[in-house]
Design brief:
Strand content: 25-35%
Low-confidence stretches: none
Number of helices: 8
Order of helices and strands: EEHEEHEHHHEEEEEEHEHH
Mean pLDDT: 94
Largest sheet: 8 strands, mixed
Structural class: alpha+beta
Radius of gyration: 20 Å
Helix content: 25-40%
């Protein structure tokens, strides 16, 4: 059994309520934020304009002409009490495979272009992240990064960006890295980066400060809606999903990129019912059970 912290609520101007579940990021807090925001969406309360879950908090925008701020606050507190029971946090989610070419020449070139902004300009980003995490060989590092799935804790920043937080690992096993001293001005589309304990797949070219360790062969943003598995959305990520990176080499990377360009690529997915209560009771064993057959 695990306990969840008491939520702190604050009004933000006339149209927002901010709810802080905890000051620090934790899987417990994120599961509660996800469960509450999904319940809010399910209730479809008139007057709510937008619901935005975050790592350890969430934000609700509302129309004060349709719902009283204090009535909405009462709704939120009522849901918060219900979702403080770990048995009420279950989520219907997807596990999605992200084929990833680690230590590739594309991300390496970008890291070298921005070496003047980096802590160790003579190292590639991949070599830097290996070094700060104590890895001596590439295979062990890649296996450590790709062996367990990552929880999508939130989306935002550049549209399509999803923050991946590792599950099933002890704190000592989590790969972590400081960000750039000063952000890069260039990042390749589908570059895979590590910042703090989070991994991201950059949805488009642009600035960035996470350390680049590879390239995703598949997009997380499909502006032309070529890929059937995106459904009605332009974006792959849904908060609460699990993403599992799978290490690939150059030949398979090029094959998948071609399938994506042709619009024939199908994401490997598995729909699962996720129990945070079971996860915190069984840890890695529960995650490995969920991954069976995937």
């Amino acid at each position: 059994m695990f306990t969840l912290p008491e939520t702190r609520f604050e009004f933000g101007g006339d149209e927002y309520i901010y709810a802080e579940i905890s000051r620090d990021m934790s899987a417990e807090s994120n599961f509660k934020a996800l469960a509450i925001t999904k319940e809010l969406q399910r209730r479809n309360i008139p007057g709510i304009v937008d619901i935005c879950p975050s790592n350890a908090s969430y934000l609700v925008r509302f129309n004060p002409e349709l719902i009283s701020p204090h009535d909405l606050l009462d709704y939120l507190k009522d849901i918060d009490i219900t979702k403080s029971n770990p048995a009420e946090l279950n989520l219907s989610i997807r596990m999605v495979e992200i084929p990833t070419w680690y230590d590739d020449p594309i991300s390496k070139e970008y890291s070298m272009r921005s070496r003047s902004r980096h802590q160790e300009p003579d190292l590639s980003n991949f070599e830097f992240v290996m070094k700060v995490n104590g890895y001596k060989d590439k295979h062990s590092f890649v296996n450590a990064h790709s062996s367990m799935p990552y929880l999508i804790t939130m989306v935002g920043f550049i549209p399509g960006t999803a923050w991946e937080f590792p599950l099933g690992l002890s704190p000592e096993e989590v790969i972590q890295s400081p960000k750039y001293l000063s952000p890069r001005t260039e990042t390749p589309k589908q570059g895979v980066g590590v910042g703090g304990a989070f991994t991201v797949v950059y949805p488009a070219e642009g600035p960035g400060s996470y350390q680049l360790i590879g390239m995703s062969a598949v997009p997380v943003f499909d502006p032309h809606k070529r890929l059937i598995d995106m459904g009605d959305s332009y974006f792959l990520a849904r908060p609460g999903d699990l993403w599992k990176h799978r290490a690939i080499e150059e030949q398979e990377y090029n094959q998948i990129v071609k399938q994506v360009e042709d619009g024939t690529y199908r994401y490997r997915m598995k729909h699962i019912e996720f129990s945070p209560e079971e996860y915190f009771a069984k840890g890695k064993m529960y995650i490995e059970w969920l991954m069976e057959g995937f």
